[in-house]
Amino acid sequence: MSDRGPTALAVTYIGYGIKIPTNLGFFFFQLLLLENGAYGKRQQKMCEYMGIEIHHESFGEQKKVDPDRVREILKNDPSFTHVAIVHCETSVGIINPIVEVGKIVRELAPSKIIFIHSHLSNLSDRPPSGPRKPGKP
Q1: Displacement of CA 79 from its chain's centroid (Å)
Q2: In a domain, 49, yes or no
Q3: How does DSSP classify residue 28?
Q4: What's the CATH number where 116 sits?
């Protein structure tokens, strides 16, 4: 433990993107789960199975997560310890506004809330360093 908090924490993935501390022996989460497709619904099921307290906010399968709604929820309930969102909800073809949501989380609770965003599903169509040049691996 340093002055800034823990220096290491063992984690495991459940669902798509929810990280759970495995070395604590108990769960102390109050999770705001922002969902608009199959991956978010799977996160919800896994959290419920593991007994993690969640507030599930669904935006339907045809809308992006609404940053203004996230702001309203966080202002009205300061008990959240985590906020989770799927960046690229490929089950419905939506790219969620993780930058905007992340800024709201940072603004309203800069040291209290851990912001979790799953983005593994969109790595296959977006090379991290840009397109490859012909003839280069």
Answers
A1: 17
A2: yes
A3: -
A4: 3.40.640.10
In a domain, 132, yes or no: no
Q: What is the pTM of this model?
A: 0.71
Q: Tell me the C-alpha distance between 45 and 59, whole Å.
A: 17
**Mean pLDDT calculated for residue range 109-133:** 63
Dist CA 82 CA 95 (whole Å): 20
Per residue in 8-51, pLDDT (tens digit) is 333 444 444 455 544 444 456 788 999 999 888 888 888 888 78
- In this structure, is residue 84 part of a structural domain? yes
Q: CA distances (Å), 47 to each of 25, 53, 71, 97, in order?
A: 15, 7, 22, 23
Residue in 76, 39, 82, 36 with CA at minimum distance from that of residue 57: 36
Assess if residue 135 is contained within a domain: no
